[in-house]
Amino acid sequence: MQVRADAGITLILGGARSGKSRLAEQLAERRNGRLVYIATAEAWDDEMKTRIAEHKARRSDRWHSLEAPIAVAEVLQALPSETGAVLVDCLTLWLSNLMHAGRDLGAETAGLLTALHSVKFPVLLVSNEVGLGIVPDNKLARDFRDAQGRLNQAVAAAADHAIFMAAGLPLVLK
To answer: Is the separation of the CB atoms in 158 and 113 below 8 Å?
Structure first.
């Protein structure tokens, strides 16, 4: 199977520094037109500021960045239909932001899925697979792991394509 960049919804999963974002950027850049990067990260500390700067530095001037720590669905739906492609990076930080804000995760996930199915441009979503390691030692971490697994399953079910990244190598799941 080949990694594709055609229209639709593509979910790219993997661990930290597995190459998820880089692959998503490469797939988006195969498309014509304006590229939109929806960033869910917030620069709370120097490490996150450095990560954000690294991501920005490697993107070409075709990219237009929008910050949406929580309102991903609303931002997606507000974009013009002639948008070339959209990259949402990442669902893991989005989920963390939602949990921190005390939002209804089921309702937010449903809103995201509705938005994904209503747009006319390709959307690539990056998410971490956090359930492959040891069982966390506290309830909040276990709740997050479980919520991330449910979110990933819901988006994967809605996606046209799903890719798992390991060591910079893509494994096409769907």
So the answer is: yes
Q: Is 100 a catalytic residue?
A: no
Maximum separation of any 2 CA atoms in the chain, in Å:
47
Hey, what amino acid is at 147? A
Distances (CA, A) of 49 to 52, 54, 137, 153: 5, 9, 28, 30
**Where do we find the tokens 């938005």?**
115
From the candidates 55, 64, 100, 161, give the one annotated as an active-site residue: 55
Q: pLDDT per residue over 84-113, tens digit each? A: 999 999 999 999 999 999 999 999 999 999
Contacts of 169 (CB under 8 A, 6+ apart): 19
Phi, psi of 39 (to 5 degrees): -95, 130
The answer to whether the pTM exceeds 0.90 is yes
> Reduced to 3 states, what is the DSSP secondary structure of residue 80?
coil
Cα distance between residue 166 and residue 32, in whole Å: 28
